[in-house]
Design brief:
This protein is mainly alpha-helical. It has one domain (about 25-75, about 80-295): Ribonucleotide Reductase, subunit A (Orthogonal Bundle). The protein has 15 helices and 4 strands. It has helices at about 5-10, 25-30, 45-50, 55-70, 80-90, 95-125, 130-155, 160-170, 175-205, 215-235, 245-265, 270-275, 280-295, 305-325, 330-350, and strands spanning about 40, 170-175, 300, 355-360. A two-stranded parallel ribbon has the order 1-2. Strands 3-4 form a two-stranded antiparallel ribbon. α1 packs across α14 (about 305-325), α9 packs antiparallel against α10 and α9 (about 175-205) packs parallel to α11 (about 245-265).
């Protein structure tokens, strides 16, 4: 059986391992470090302290005024109908959908809190006034997002102690340029995902099975602005976008796109409930993200290449097979997991070497979100 056949034959209902039944389960899921799970990061603070944004000063100062204006300062407040909507709507959902939604909330919370921690740590360990101010604003936004998500988890008695999560989750060291590439993409693809979901549920309000989705439009504008910040930082240092760094940009583009695709295709009930086809949704998100990243990246992935989707489907099927293998013990299972991981690495390598699209960087960095 090849990987594609295995994917088509997979019974997703059998893959709901590590289901969330308690706050302890939610904490364990948040603490998990896997290829698909959000991580916590630290970086080289001395290098961050040396960032010079003088070459993009005009756009930078305008962006700082937007942060200072804080147009979302009163947005992340639950209205009077929130709790009642949760009770009414969630009571109608089957267990598979509930579990996928819990996984979505926990993953989103971990991702938002990861940004909050990183930005706060940078802020505390540097003196550069431009970057210190930026990190203060972004940590503020991510803290609101994480707190809002945690309130929704508390509705199910799955609230996570964020202080304990900060102390106990493992941290990964990333050089500043890797932070820039990865976080820029994370923020921009987060915008594309949230706005696509919001527009879908705006057109189909009967598919809105939880009130949190009503907050997504203004929420994703925070994500968009965060991405703009890293775009300006990268454009202020042209060497980050040349030479061998172009290869790193290709790597992070593919890693972020592939991670999203695989994760979304292991949550079929969640997308079905919103009336979304996971593949069509992901490629729509890729298209938006690709249009946005023209502002800073000299290369773009050709997501229309026929072998691109084929490779993502193979990665998805291999991921599902690895999840199934992890439920078994013994040397045979370990060898099987190693073989599947090697196959996934080969598929990723083939995707990496697909032709890319070269892009001319615009004179003006910032873009207005129009989606």
């Amino acid at each position: 059986m090849n990987a594609q056949t295995a994917f088509m034959d997979t019974d997703f209902t059998q893959l709901l391992v590590n289901s969330v039944e308690s706050g302890e389960d939610a904490k364990k899921k948040a603490l998990t470090n896997t290829v698909l799970a959000p991580r916590f990061y630290t970086t080289d603070f001395d290098a961050m302290d040396k960032i010079d944004v003088s070459s993009v000063r005009e756009e930078w100062d305008l962006m700082m005024k937007e942060y200072e204006g804080d147009n979302n300062h009163d947005h992340f407040q639950r209205d009077a109908t929130f709790a009642e909507e949760v009770k009414t709507l969630m009571s109608k959902l089957d267990e598979n959908l509930k579990q996928e939604f819990y996984d979505f909330l926990i993953g989103s919370l971990t991702s938002e809190f990861s940004g909050c921690i990183l930005y706060n740590e940078v802020r505390k360990n540097i003196s550069n006034p431009d970057i210190k101010k930026l990190m203060t604003f972004m940590a503020r936004d991510e803290s609101r997002h994480a707190g809002f998500l945690n309130q929704s988890l508390k509705d199910f008695n799955f609230g996570i102690d964020l202080g304990e999560l900060k102390r106990t989750k493992k941290y990964t060291f990333f050089r500043p340029k890797f932070i820039f590439y990865a976080t820029y993409l994370s923020e921009k693809i987060g915008y594309a995902r949230y706005i696509s979901i919001f527009r879908q549920l705006e057109r189909n309000p009967d598919k809105r099975f939880h009130p949190i989705f009503r907050w997504f439009e203004r929420w994703c504008n925070d994500e968009y602005r965060h991405g703009e910040s890293f775009a300006l930082i990268m454009r202020a240092d042209p060497k980050l976008l040349k030479g061998i760094n172009v290869l790193w940009i290709r790597f992070f583009l593919l890693a972020v796109y592939a991670t999203m695709y695989v994760r979304d295709h292991t949550r079929p009930a969640l997308h079905d409930a919103m009336g979304l086809n996971a593949t069509e949704y992901d490629f729509a998100v890729f298209k938006i993200t690709t249009e946005i990243t023209k502002q800073v990246f000299p290369v773009l992935l050709d997501t229309d290449h026929p072998k691109f989707k084929e490779g993502l489907d193979k990665l998805t099927s291999l991921s599902l097979l690895m999840d199934a293998a992890k439920t078994k013990k013994g040397i045979v299972s370990s060898l099987n997991q190693a073989l599947l991981a090697a196959q996934a690495l080969i598929v990723f390598g083939k995707l990496y070497f697909l032709p890319v699209i070269k892009s001319e960087l615009p004179l003006q960095v910032r873009m207005t979100p129009t989606w």
